Amino acid sequence: MNTLIIGTSTFKSRLIIGSGKYKDFQTTREAAIASGAGLITVAVRRVNIVNQNEENLLDYFKDLDIKLLPNSAGCASADEAVSTFRLTREATGINLVKLEVIGDMAKTLYPDAIETLTACEILAKDGFQTMVYTTDDPIMAKRLENVGAAAVMPLASAIGSAQGIQNRFNVIFVKEAVRVPVIVDAGVGCASDAAIAMELGADGVLTNTAIALAQNPVLMARAMKNAVIAGRQSYLAGRTAKKMYASASSPSEGIASLS
């Protein structure tokens, strides 16, 4: 039930966490362990995983069963993203990546749809398995799948905003549009946001800010773990239908008259 398959990789958890914004690498490690996540994203243009002469995030995870997911955060063009991943693969051998090509660096951090699509196609042809950050547009999600995306990652709301899912219907529409995994990404603010994403049918959730900037990151990581599991169980169980009016919890047939 909790197994997540992306490309040729299988993970025991449907929760993915980020590595940014933590106060130090040790806290990142502790939160990652508490989350139970099998993947942690790394902005390779901002976080060191290749220079062994400086403090290296890899040193804190080499004894754990948590894989690093390089992402192209900070890239504004397809060329930048592709070059970043090629260099990263050469240095680390990592083939599963998270593609981000940002169109608005100043305010929304929304993706550039055209550059993202171009980069996704190039990376797929180059043998990468690419998880793609995108808007919650089912048409774009389908286009990304068609050019080789291993997973699509529609935003819940703006990166780091903690606003939760702003358009629940679009999560459903994206899920209906594609056959690859749908990972709700960006804007998750608390455990209930993660549970809602899973109840809507998402295959997984990625969250960074909600854990890293919580007053107790390790406890929030544990809460996210439980929320993703509960949300998935709720989705699989099948919720009862909504009704306009009240409906008694116990049957009315056979009730004896008190008159």
Verbal overview:
- The protein is α/β, with parallel strands linked by helices.
- The protein has one domain (4-237): TIM Barrel (Alpha-Beta Barrel).
- It is 36% helix and 16% strand.
- The protein has eight helices and ten strands.
- A five-stranded parallel β-sheet has the order 5-4-3-10-9.
- α4 runs parallel beside α5.
- It is globular and about 85 Å long.
- The model has no long low-confidence stretch (mean pLDDT 91).
Provide key terms for this protein.
alpha/beta, TIM Barrel, 36% helix, three-stranded parallel β-sheet, single chain, 259 residues
Any chance you could write out the topology, listing elements then pairs?
Blueprint: E1 4-6, E2 9-11, E3 15-18, H1 25-35, E4 39-43, E5 67-71, H2 78-92, E6 96-99, H3 113-125, E7 129-134, H4 138-146, E8 151-154, H5 168-177, E9 183-185, H6 191-199, E10 204-207, H7 209-212, H8 217-237
Parallel strand pairs: 3-4, 3-10, 4-5, 6-7, 7-8, 9-10
Antiparallel strand pairs: 1-2
Give a quick rundown of the structure:
The protein has 259 residues and is α/β, with parallel strands linked by helices.
**CATH fold naming:** TIM Barrel
The tally of structural domains comes to 1
Looking at CATH, the homologous superfamily is Aldolase class I
How much is the radius of gyration in Å?
20 Å
- Class by alpha and beta content: alpha/beta
Largest sheet: 5 strands, parallel
Shape: globular
Q: Total number of β-strand segments?
A: 10
Task: State the separation between the terminal residues, measured CA to CA.
Answer: 53 Å
Strand order of the largest sheet: 5-4-3-10-9
DSSP strand content? 15-25%
